[in-house]
Each structure stands twice: as C-alpha cells, then as structure tokens.
Design goal:
73 residues, 0% strand
Length: 73
C-alpha cells in the first residue's frame, strides 16, 4: 500500500537526477573555461543530492503515516 505512495517521488527524483546527469555531460563536452565546467558540475551534483535528500525525507514521512505533506502549512 505504501509502495504506491512512493512511486511518484521516486520517479520525479529520477527525472531530476537525469537532468543533473545531462548537465554533467554538457560540462564535459563544452570547450569553455575550467570555471564554467566546475560551476556546471557543482550545479548538477547539487541538484542530484538535493533531490535525493528530499526523497529520503519524503519516504520517512510516508513510513510514519503522514501522507499529506501540505498538512504542516
């Protein structure tokens, strides 16, 4: 039952990490300065790690039984 509630956050995290992977690929294929490559790499890794962190927090909330994330606000 709880597996159905975790499918959407996992799918969205996968899409966001694919976008981050695209940024990593883009930074390696560019012939720009090293600073531009480092910026793109940091942005891509930040996006992926942030999405994974939010996914872990959301799965913890679902396991606790809190299905309505907007109930806090």
């Amino acid at each position: 039952m709880k597996l159905k509630k975790t499918i959407a956050p996992i799918a969205i995290t996968a899409i966001v990490c694919l976008y981050g992977g695209f940024l990593l690929y883009l930074s390696f294929s560019l012939d720009e300065s090293i600073f531009a490559k480092i910026f793109l790499d940091m942005a891509a890794l930040g996006i992926c790690f942030g999405a994974i962190h939010v996914l872990v927090e959301r799965i913890k909330e679902i396991r606790k039984g809190e299905t309505d994330d907007l109930g806090k606000y």
